[in-house]
Amino acid sequence: MGIAARLAAYACALALVFGLAWATGRLVHRAQIPAGAAPEVMVTAPSDADSAGATDGLSSAAGGYRLAVADPTFVPGTPRELRFTVLGPEGTPVTAFAATGRDPRPLHAVVVRRDAAGFQRLDPTMDTDGTWRMPLTLPAPGVWRAYVDMTPMAGPTLVLGTDLFAAGSFDPFTFPPSRTDQIDDFQLRLDGDLVPGVPSQVFATVSRDGEGVTDLQPYLGGFGKLVVLREGDLAYTTATAGNGANPAPTDRAGPAVAFTANVPSAGTYRLFLQFRVADVMHTAEFTVPTRNP
Q1: DSSP code of 277?
Q2: Which residues are within 8 A (CB) of 104 and not within 5 positions of it... i.e. 6 or more apart?
Q3: What sign has the CA pseudo-torsion 117, 60, 94, 238?
Q4: How does residue 95 score in pLDDT terms, banded at 50, 70 and 90?
Q5: Is the model's pLDDT at 163 over the cut of 90?
Q6: 106-154 pLDDT per residue, tens
Q7: Pick the CATH number of 180-289 from 3.40.930.10, 3.40.190.10, 3.30.1300.10, 2.60.40.1930
Q8: Closest CA to 272 of 282, 262, 263
């Protein structure tokens, strides 16, 4: 099903205003990211806490670092440029970040609706003054969560998060448990259990027309990237690639990609798998409840 059809199916009535709390937001399955125009006023995102080394994205500040984001208000379906900075302990923008392995990007950004739908991975670029820029479209109304995953050169690895707002009426979307997905002509299956509090191995298998795909290309330092979000508060968890970590650009793998995930508590999690074939990036989605230890 295409993006436009998904949005038409999900969008209906319930009022939303810019000051709405995070718990009211939900919608949209997948989204495209056209370019847009930059806003003019810089607004510092409010800090929820300042715990050292936080990596769950529930706070806009941690370890002495803060996420300062441009105007967080959007018109649904209208592209524009989102600007943000990462402020260091002295209150000035951070301009030096540590890269990880062969992953050339020192900072990662993702955006998702507050119902864990509409996942987008973005590709921001940094100006010399520490301002990061990225084109962004919020394709439907609601409260959206933006995450920034990075390691300042002189600081800890952090995931900071803040809310973005798109005004309008909407109907929250609910995801039933699912371990399969269909993306274009690819079929995806997720095996393995999420067990709270212990490393959990999961395996994503990519097939096409009933045959395993063996030409998965390297992407972000592995043969796939898996982001795990806890339903409810959208606590952010990344999963470590368990096979083919830091592959060379010419390496290929498949049909299965292994990951180790660390989920902090019981509940239901949304998993977003991104993989590349023939230089095209695809995103599959799964909804998986945890299993008791």
Answers
A1: E
A2: none
A3: negative
A4: very high
A5: yes
A6: 899 999 999 999 999 999 999 999 999 999 999 999 999 999 999 999 8
A7: 2.60.40.1930
A8: 282
